[in-house]
Amino acid sequence: MNRAARFSLPAVPAVLLSIGSVQGGAAIAKGLFPLLGAAGTTSLRIGLSALVLLVAVRPRLGRLRPAQWRAVVPYGLALGLMNFLFYCALARVPLGLAVPLEFVGPLGLAVAGSRRWADAGWAGLAAAGIALIAPWHGRGPDPLGLALALAAGGCWAGYIVLGRRTAAVLPGPQAVAIGMLFAALPVLPFGVASGSLRALTPHLLGLGALLALFSSVLPFSLEMRALRTLPTRTFSILMSLEPVAAALSGWWLLHERLLGSQWLAVGLIVAASAGATLTQGRPRPAPG
To answer: What per-residue string of b and e applies to 60-74 under the rule 16 or more CB within 10 Å gives b?
Structure first.
């Protein structure tokens, strides 16, 4: 047994570490919003992530076939828009609410078109969670922030569909590296227009590098390693814990407090996501 194999991280801890890494990255991102705004922070993260992945993977762009370009370009655009909308939501609502609402997108994709009572039940459970979060009578979280989180979830569902098509014609690491390059296209114009990127300093670039590491590079590496040995259903169930991790991360790192009803909403959406996974065994690619 070589040294790398001896010290490789087991699959389940790798997934849990990936979840923690993503939420830690979200906390870093929220700390950058007052300085760079959501558009500037998204541009910095995606730009640095694309640079790291392109150097690490070294995809041969000149050898891509037309069918591969037709698959990977919309995949990358969906990835960029998903991240941009999520950060715009995160600038307005707590992390512990933005992530559960974003999960509604993949969950809706999992039960879409199904006629089984069980799937209708999971959808109803998620709807109850959304109802508990909704700002009835003008009180509660920012309505635009909640809508942006749901829109990010819709992009996540599109990203999953497009990701499956891309994976069929292009190896995974190349797809993510090239996709991240095109993910910058819908985001950079907003980042440039905001003027925040002109205020970049070595300190902010360092924080941006940490953001790219924790939000994209490290989770991608850990999840790719875990998926080599972990059944897809087990992986999806573990990833369903992400809204809980987001709420705990927001409480611990950002001092965001959720109401009891909001914690219940998080629990309902987690239960719906895990339940849909158990009954369907749906694969759930991770966001970039």
So the answer is: eeeebeeebeebbbb
Q: What percent of the chain has pLDDT over 70?
A: 92
Cα maximum dimension of the chain: 63
**DSSP class of residue 140?**
S
Range of lowest pLDDT (117-121, 175-179, 228-232, 252-256): 228-232
> Tokens standing for 37?
């705004």
Q: How many CA atoms lie within 13 A of 180 on its CB side?
A: 30
Structure tokens at 114: 């199904």
- Which of residues 91 and 276 earns the better pLDDT score? 91
Q: Dihedrals φ, ψ of 78, to 5°?
A: -65, -40
Q: Quote the distance between the C-alpha of residue 50 and its chain's center.
A: 16
From 237, 177, 182, 253, select the one nearest 16 (Cα to Cα): 237
Residue 75: pLDDT above 90?
A: yes
How does DSSP classify residue 62? G
151 and 98 in contact (C-beta within 8 Å)? no
Token representation of residue 21? 């890494």
Tokens 């700002």, residue located? 135
**Residue 134 CB neighbours (<10 A):** 12
Q: What tokens appear for 116 in the block?
A: 């089984």
pLDDT for position 145:
95
HSE-CB of 80 using CA atoms within 13 angstroms: 30
Terminal CA-CA length for the chain: 32
Question: In terms of C-beta density within 10 A (0-12 exposed, 13-18 middle, 19 or more buried), how is residue 130 classed?
Answer: middle
**Helix extents (H) in 91-201:** 95-111, 117-133, 143-169, 172-183, 188-194
